[in-house]
Structures are given as C-alpha cells and as structure tokens.
Specification:
Number of domains: 2
Number of strands: 0
CATH architecture of the largest domain: Up-down Bundle
Low-confidence stretches: 190-206
InterPro entries: AH/BAR_dom_sf, F_BAR_dom, FCH_dom
Shape: rod-shaped
Strand content: under 5%
Distance between the termini: 86 Å
Order of helices and strands: HHHH
CATH class of the largest domain: Mainly Alpha
Mean pLDDT: 78
Radius of gyration: 49 Å
Protein name: FES proto-onco, tyrosine kinase
Organism: Ursus americanus
Keywords: Coiled coil
Length: about 210
C-alpha cells in the first residue's frame, strides 16, 4: 500500500496528526473502560463470594429438606458465579487490557517518530531550497557581471570602429543611415572589417 502524495503537504500532515490523535483518544477510552470493567467484576465477585458464605438462618432444618436443598443450590451457584466473574476479570486484565496498553505505547511512539521525521524532512527541504536559491542568485550575479562586461566591451569596440569616420564627416549619423549592407558588415566582421566597410562606404558616397 502506497503513501498518497496528497499527505506530503502540510495539510496532509495535519490530517494524519488529527487521525493519530483521534485513534489514541479512542484507545485510551477503551483502556479506561476495560480497567473499570476489571475493577467492577472483581468487586462484584468479592461481594458474591461474601454472600455465598452468609448464614441464611436455617439452623435446625434438615439438610435433606427441599428448602435446605434450594438454599444450598443458590449459594453454590452464587459461589460459582463469583469464581467465573473473578476469572473473567483476570483474563481481561492479563489479555486484552495488557495488549491494549502495549498498542497505545506503540501508537504514541509511532506518532512521535512520525512527527520527528516530518520535522527533519521539512528542515532538509528548507535547507536544500535555500541552497538552491543562493546558488541561482550567485549564478545570476556572475551572468549579470559578464553581461555588463560584454556590453562595455561592445560599446568600446563600437566607438573604436565608427569614431574616425564620424570625425572625418563632422556629423553623428545613426547606424541605420549607412544601409543594411554596412550594418551587417560591421556587426559580423569585427573591428578591422568594420573599418574597411566604412572606408568603402565613404569612397562610395564621395
């Protein structure tokens, strides 16, 4: 039998804890009831035994008389019932009640172990999550720094390619004004190729 993925959430954890608490309350109620039953049966058995020993005041009556025989039967059955109740009380105490106590302790230990393991898993998950976040932040900072450096180098290279030509013309045209061919040559060819493209462009326009 698998463990439902829905129980892995905090809500599922709370539901499991509530179920464990309800089971423990029920088991505790059963244990108290059985303990009271054992106590009551013992007390009742003792009272019946005491009653079976009482004298009915029938002295002087022949033991063979129907009344004496009836009384003897009543006291005998009362004593038998007393022994039966006492035996049932002892069996209940040594059997179900004792096993129920063991079951309660096992459930309590299970609840404790489950709670400890849940807390440990939550701590490990939080630690791993925080480590992943810090790792991503560090990677982002490195990439941002590399991007800034690449942008700065690009801007410096752009100034180095176009500045002589712009100074010669005495104006500051936009990159789009030189046509698509010049832009592609400058973007794909690097500084030296871009400079040669500018020279060709200057001679063409002159």
């Amino acid at each position: 039998m698998g463990f439902s993925s829905e129980l892995c959430s905090p809500q599922g954890h709370g539901a499991v804890q509530q179920m464990q608490e309800a089971e423990l309350r029920l088991l505790e109620g059963m244990r108290k009831w059985m303990a009271q039953r054992v106590k009551s049966d013992r007390e009742y058995a003792g009272l019946l035994h005491h009653m079976s020993l009482q004298d009915s005041g029938g002295r002087g009556i022949s033991p063979n008389s129907p009344i004496s025989q009836s009384w003897a039967e009543i006291t005998s059955q009362t004593e038998g019932l007393s022994r039966l109740l006492r035996q049932h009380a002892e069996d209940l105490n040594s059997g179900p009640l004792s096993k129920l106590g063991l079951l309660i302790r096992e459930r309590q230990q299970l609840r404790k172990t489950y709670s400890e393991q849940w807390q440990q898993l939550q701590q490990e998950l939080s630690k791993t999550h925080n480590q992943d976040i810090e790792k991503l932040k560090s990677q982002y900072r490195v990439l941002a720094r590399d991007s800034a450096q690449a942008r700065r180098k690009y801007q410096e290279a752009s100034k180095g390619v176009w500045l002589p030509f712009l100074e010669e013309r005495g104006r500051t045209p936009s990159l789009q004004s030189y046509g698509q061919g010049a832009r592609l040559a400058w973007l794909c060819g690097g500084a030296s190729e871009g400079h040669s493209s500018n020279t060709a462009l200057a001679s063409g326009t002159g």
